Amino acid sequence: MLLYKPKKDVPSKGRRILISVTVLGSAGPIRFIVNEDELAASVIATALKTYAREGRLPVLGSDLKNFVLYCPISGSEALNPWDTIGSAGVRNFMLFKKPESEINKVPESPRKGGGSWKSWFNKSLNLKISSH
Description:
alpha+beta, 4-stranded mixed sheet, elongated
């Protein structure tokens, strides 16, 4: 007599790993299980959903384009959204919101005139001087 149901031979989708994602300014890391071959963009989406579901502060938003995922051990370069999470070789990550200047970046048109250093200098001074 069988006490358990035999498992069917299901092809594995890859190794499942427990990862920890720390959000800058949050109380602690978010931990969840992902497949080793899952994309970094998918991990960012899962982290943002979990973060919002738990009601953590500060409120981050849900647009994936505004965030980057870093691996603190491997260096200062962010993971590309199409990289697999297992390619980093680690299980601890940091999630950062991109700076506002990078999010709202508008491509600059090439200058029409040569311009002068005086005009550039005056513009740079005007940006640094604030009115009272």
